[in-house]
Amino acid sequence: MANETPKTPRKTAPKPANRRAGASADLPASKPASKPASNRAERAAERRGAIIEAAMDEFIARGFAATRLDDVAKRAGVAKGTIYLHFKDKESMFEELIRTAIVPMITRLWGTPPQPGASVRDLVEGFAKTFIEEVATTRRGDLVRLIVAEGPRFPAVADFYYREVVSRGLGGMRALIELGIARGEIKQKNLARFPQIMVAPALIAVIWQSLFSRHAPLDALEMFRVHLDLIFGERRTT
After folding, report:
1. DSSP 141-160
2. Rounded distance, CA 112 to CA 128, Å?
3. Which bin fits 8, alpha (ψ -120 to 50), beta or left (φ > 0)?
4. Which of 3-17, 30-44, 167-181 has the lowest mean pLDDT?
5. Tens digit of pLDDT for each residue in 107-135?
6. 3-class SS string, 83-124
7. What band does 32 get if pLDDT is binned at 50, 70 and 90?
């Protein structure tokens, strides 16, 4: 038999190192990009805001005692478990509602420097106008009425409201009264011991608005001005 020529092994073409320019052979298969942390934070903030808004609706409609987290979750469009990612319990949810709905207004009210040359009466009247417009005739007033009605049964809630709202308001009003006494605008020096007297019409306006306004509408700001006439004396008209 004739000698057969040995077959030369066929060389296989080398595999390309990369199928795409710039790709790394060490990289695993591509995965869907994860959501940026900022987007996740925004969504969490939106859910928290929706929960607080729903909580306000439920508390105003049902009262503190009758409000259930299940109903808040349903109104907010979230699972009940989502609420516990943001709030420990119903009390902490209500506290956050006060902290976001009322505390900023109190901070702004007493943190704004008085206008140069303004009288103490002007400053107190400005407080009254802001309170009546932003609390007494709004849903914030409903929260205040809720605390007045149910605070005795839930002292922790009342204590929180006192610390965050009432004590700040009384402290600011006492400072104004002391300024008025020093300037000679207020003659009754003992008024500084009882700043509650100065703000009493504001609380009356809140309570009257929900109970009796349909029978006898109240001009709360004009009532406050008459109250200030009793303290400062009637304004002189020119």
Report:
1. HHHHHHHHHHGGG-HHHHHH
2. 15
3. beta
4. 3-17
5. 888 877 777 889 999 999 999 999 999 99
6. HHHHCCCHHHHHHHHHHHHCHHHHHHHHHCCCCCCCCHHHHH
7. low
Closest CA to 147 of 134, 161, 137, 133: 161
Per DSSP, the three-state class of 48 is helix
pTM of the shown model: 0.77
The amino acid sitting at 236 is R
Computed over its alpha carbons, how large is the radius of gyration of the chain? 33
Helix (H, G, I), strand (E, B) or coil at 189: helix
Q: Taking all residues of the chain, what is their mean pLDDT, rounded to a whole number?
A: 86
To the nearest 10 degrees (0 to 180), the angle between helices 120-131 and 167-183 is 160
Is residue 166 within 8 Å of residue 155, measured between CB atoms?
Answer: no
Cα first-last separation, the chain? 139
Residue 67: closest CA among 80, 52, 53, 55:
55
Note whether 151 and 158 are within 8 A (CB): yes
- The pair of structure tokens assigned to 100 is 């976001």
Distances (CA, A) of 144 to 78, 86, 124: 27, 24, 20
If you write DSSP's letter for every residue of 169-184 in order, what string do you get? HHHHHHHHHHHHHHHT
Taken in order 102, 106, 107, 108, the sign of the CA dihedral is positive
Rounded distance, CA 214 to CA 217, Å? 6
